[in-house]
Amino acid sequence: MIKGIGSWLVKHSKVSPERLALVYNERRFTYAEFNERVNRLSHALLNLGVRKGDRVDALLLNTNEMMEAVFACAKIGAIFVPINFRLSVDEVLYIVNDSRAYHFIYDVRMRPVVDQLRLKDSSLQEYIHVGNNPHEEDSLYEELIAGASNAEPEFDVVLDDIHLMMYTSGTTGKPKGAMLSHGNTQWNAINCIHSIPSDNSDITLCVAPLFHIGGMSVFTLPLLYKGGTVILDDGFDPSRVLQKIHEEKITSIFLVPAMWQALTVVPNFESYDISSLRFAVSGGAPCPITVIEFYQKRNIPFYEGFGLTETAPFVSILDKENTVRKNGSVGKEPVHTTVRIVDPNDRDVPPGEVGELIVQGPNIMFGYWNKPEATKEAIKNGWFYTGDLAKFDDEGFIYIVDRKKDMIITGGENVYPIEIEQVLYRHENIAEVAIIGYPDEKWGESVKAIVSLKDKSQTLTVQDVASFLDGKIARFKIPKQVEVVEALPRNATGKILKTVLRQQVQV
């Protein structure tokens, strides 16, 4: 019987027990050590009453405990639910109660939120504390591990069993729990390794948050599948990222565009040796062209990826050979995933025409937890409807045009904000930009640019923007309003919250 992802560690601990698996701060774990800690945590959870199919929620940072919990739950057939540690207590409470979890693992740094959570009416029965200063009623993580068996758990876990439930970022409405199976994660790893050919000598730096599918499954889980090394960093500091690449000879890293952009303004960027990088991947949101060009000029192999929580996440990748020639594209789908672009009647659109991107393959989630209607709406006849508008070019490269909900219709013309944003990012004084629509009695909607500036002592008017865009895009796409703000609102994964911006326009 094929086992789930927990079998990866079993195999690696037998074949290459001394190979370095995981690094967090000063702690370094070989595959044998990592597997033993996972086994002990598995038995500790069983002793606390966790059973196959139970949800184990966690408020953890990018630490070894996070990865131990992922694999411990996997070995006993439990479902691990990592929660965004930047959420408010009420938002955490919603996920806890929606997932109906009884067990909760949390980092000492999250204690202020957890202390508030205890006062709420939740499903939780057991708190497991990582670090010092626990609540008096908590179980202690290290004590549980020290007192539990290191034997391999004897559970039948198959690829169709759910092992991970990740809540979508919730840029609109309440977040939904995407149920990802062992098979989803394993096939995603195979897709990744096939398209971004890592081997067991590779070292990845995971600084993107592990509660996000990009941090968890672009390099972290695929490289553990392959038998490589994962270095964890629990806070994003641009200078420290460059220093770790320099010192640890990092070969691969995934960052969201806001992180890649932050690295570009480190004053002494050129003093760090980051030539060890073989794979620099951006995803989670469109990456400004100027940022991509920054790394290309420095001969850093830069890949642009596209994926979603619901697709575990790999949908497409633009490889380093085409990043210049096909700038703006998200590439092509991997070998074990199929994509189509369809019109409202589910007919394939020809190259150059815009439609909705739909995805099929073994990496597609099983559905949304406890939301059958939302699942039926998202998955039809085996195809996942992404809600992203896209087009193919004549060579089959995919271009994401925008989210369906973000498209602006002005005077009967479709306007795709990403197109305008990418041009505006070339303005010498624009640091961030978001294009949204606002109600217009004459045109239905009109275009508005919300920007933050590099030099905040300067101004930027509608006329300035119109002059800059003149001749670069069609006139009906040029913003009729421009608002300068200190910073654009983002969620924890770096996505600009256009929903918040649109709500502010309505006020």
TrEMBL record:
Write the record's keywords in alphabetical order, separated by commas.
Ligase
Q: Which PROSITE patterns match?
A: AMP_BINDING
The AMP-dependent synthetase/ligase domain extends over: 12-369
The record, for Pfam families, names: AMP-binding, AMP-binding_C
Record InterPro entries: AMP-bd_C, AMP-bd_C_sf, AMP-binding_CS, AMP-dep_synth/lig_dom, ANL_N_sf, ATP-dep_AMP-bd_enzyme
Entry coiled-coil feature ranges: none
Q: GO: which molecular function terms?
A: acid-thiol ligase activity
Q: Where is the AMP-binding enzyme C-terminal domain?
A: 419-495
* NCBIfam families attached to this UniProt entry: PRK06187.1
PANTHER family tied to this protein: LONG-CHAIN-FATTY-ACID--COA LIGASE, NONRIBOSOMAL PEPTIDE SYNTHASE PES1 (EUROFUNG)-RELATED
Q: Belongs to which family?
A: Belongs to the ATP-dependent AMP-binding enzyme family.
Indicate what this protein is called per its UniProt record.
Fatty-acyl-CoA synthase
Q: What lineage is this protein's organism placed in?
A: Bacteria, Bacillati, Bacillota, Bacilli, Bacillales
